[in-house]
C-alpha cells in the first residue's frame, strides 16, 4: 500500500528533501509538492542579483523542473486549510488532496510590503529590485540584514553602471538588531563610505506618493519605495486550528512534528524554532532540516524512533557589502574584502549546482 506524503511550499528544507529523492526513492511512498508559485528565489543570492553579478536564471529555482528530476508530481495551487480529522488538504480553488503525512515549509509573508507602484507581497522580487536600481532616490525601509545588503548592492550597481542618484535606508530600530554591536558599527561605516543615506530608530507614520514622514517629524523623499514589512507566518496554521503562539508561528517539537499532530511536520521561518534563527544561519539550518525531515518521515512510517533537530550556528558568516566585497565574520575576527565575497559566492553557487544538477 502506498503512503501519500504532501509537501506544502517550496521552502529550502523541502527543496533539499526533493533533491535527496533523486538518489534514494521508496516505491511505497508517494511524495507530492504543492506550491502557489512554480519558481523559488534563492534568497542568499538576491544581493548579488541586485548588484548585477547574477542573472535571473542563476537565482531562480524552477520547482517543476526540480520535481520532474526527482519523480515528484508538482501542483501549482495555494493551500487554504488542513482538515486534520480527515487528513485532507483543501486548496483555495476547492481542490482536495488526501494524505497520510503532510509537511509545511512556506516561509513567511510580509505584513506591509509596499512599493511606489503598489506592488504587494506576491510581486516578483526580481522585478522590484530592477525597478529600485533604475530609480533616482530609492528608499528601502527596514533594519534587517536583507535590507542592508540590498541597499549596499543597489548603491554599488548605480555607481558601476552610471545610474544617477543614491540609495536611502530607514530602519525603524537600530540597523542589524540581530547582530553584535561590533558588527553593526562596522557595517554603518561601510554604508557611510558607500554614500547610502541612513536613518535609524524612526518609525514610519505616514506614506505619501513621494515621501514618508516618521515619528521624529522627518520627511524622507523617494522616487521608489521598498518596504518589506514585518514578517508574519502563514495563515494556513490559524485556518487549520493548529497550535500557534501569540504571533501565529506554529508550535513544533524537536522531531520537526507539529505539537499534538504527529502526522504533520513543519520547518522553516514560520515555526517557533525557525523564527529564532538569524538570517545568516537560516540556510545552513534549512539544509539540515531537510535531511532530518525525510529521515523522520521514514521513521514515522516504520514506527521507529525519530531524531531531534537542534539549530546549529555557523562558524562564520559573510555579509554582502557591494562592490564585489563581503564582510566575513568569524567570532571576534572580521575580514572585509573581495576574497570574503568569493567565499560566499562559491558557497551559494555550489548549493545551486548541487540542487539543480
Automatic annotation (TrEMBL):
<keyword id="KW-0285">Flavoprotein</keyword>
<dbReference type="InterPro" id="IPR023753">
    <property type="entry name" value="FAD/NAD-binding_dom"/>
</dbReference>
<dbReference type="InterPro" id="IPR036188">
    <property type="entry name" value="FAD/NAD-bd_sf"/>
</dbReference>
<feature type="domain" description="FAD/NAD(P)-binding">
    <location>
        <begin position="4"/>
        <end position="290"/>
    </location>
</feature>
<keyword id="KW-0274">FAD</keyword>
<protein>
    <submittedName>
        <fullName>Pyridine nucleotide-disulfide oxidoreductase</fullName>
    </submittedName>
</protein>
<dbReference type="InterPro" id="IPR051169">
    <property type="entry name" value="NADH-Q_oxidoreductase"/>
</dbReference>
<comment type="similarity">
    <text>Belongs to the NADH dehydrogenase family.</text>
</comment>
<keyword id="KW-0560">Oxidoreductase</keyword>
<dbReference type="Pfam" id="PF07992">
    <property type="entry name" value="Pyr_redox_2"/>
</dbReference>
Amino acid at each position: 500500500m502506498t503512503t501519500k506524503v504532501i509537501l506544502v511550499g517550496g521552502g529550502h528544507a523541502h527543496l533539499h528533501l526533493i533533491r535527496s529523492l533523486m538518489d534514494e526513492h521508496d516505491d511505497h511512498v508517494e511524495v507530492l509538492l504543492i506550491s502557489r508559485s512554480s519558481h523559488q528565489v534563492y534568497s542568499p543570492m538576491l544581493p548579488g542579483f541586485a548588484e548585477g553579478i547574477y542573472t535571473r536564471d542563476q537565482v531562480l529555482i524552477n520547482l517543476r523542473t526540480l520535481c520532474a528530476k526527482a519523480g515528484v508530481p508538482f501542483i501549482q495551487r495555494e493551500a487554504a486549510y488542513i482538515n486534520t480529522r480527515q487528513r485532507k488538504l483543501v486548496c483555495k480553488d476547492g481542490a482536495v488532496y488526501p494524505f497520510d503525512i503532510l509537511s509545511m515549509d512556506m516561509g513567511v509573508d510580509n505584513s506591509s510590503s509596499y512599493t511606489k507602484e503598489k506592488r504587494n507581497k506576491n510581486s516578483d522580487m526580481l522585478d522590484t529590485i530592477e525597478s529600485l536600481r533604475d530609480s533616482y532616490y530609492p528608499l528601502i525601509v527596514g533594519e534587517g540584514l536583507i535590507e542592508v545588503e540590498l541597499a549596499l548592492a543597489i548603491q554599488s550597481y548605480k555607481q558601476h553602471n552610471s545610474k544617477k542618484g543614491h540609495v536611502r535606508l530607514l530602519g525603524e530600530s537600530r540597523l542589524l538588531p540581530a547582530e553584535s554591536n561590533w558588527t553593526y558599527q562596522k557595517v554603518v561605516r561601510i554604508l557611510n563610505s558607500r554614500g547610502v543615506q541612513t536613518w535609524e530608530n524612526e518609525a514610519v507614520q505616514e506614506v505619501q506618493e513621494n515621501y514618508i514622514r516618521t515619528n521624529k517629524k522627518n520627511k524622507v523623499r523617494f522616487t521608489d519605495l521598498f518596504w518589506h514589512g514585518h514578517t508574519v507566518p502563514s495563515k494556513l496554521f490559524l485556518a487549520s486550528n493548529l497550535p500557534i503562539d501569540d504571533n501565529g508561528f506554529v508550535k513544533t517539537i524537536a522531531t520537526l512534528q507539529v505539537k499534538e499532530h504527529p502526522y504533520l511536520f513543519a520547518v522553516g521561518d514560520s515555526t517557533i524554532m525557525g523564527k529564532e534563527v538569524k538570517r545568516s544561519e537560516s540556510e545552513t539550518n534549512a539544509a539540515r532540516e531537510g535531511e532530518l525531515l525525510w529521515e523522520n518521515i521514514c521513521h514515522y512510517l516504520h514506527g521507529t524512533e525519530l531524531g531531534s533537530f537542534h539549530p546549529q550556528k555557523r562558524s562564520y558568516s559573510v555579509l554582502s557589502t557591494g562592490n564585489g566585497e563581503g564582510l566575513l565574520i568569524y567570532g571576534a575576527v572580521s575580514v572585509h574584502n573581495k576574497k570574503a565575497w568569493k567565499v560566499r559566492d562559491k558557497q551559494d553557487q555550489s548549493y545551486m549546482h548541487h540542487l539543480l544538477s
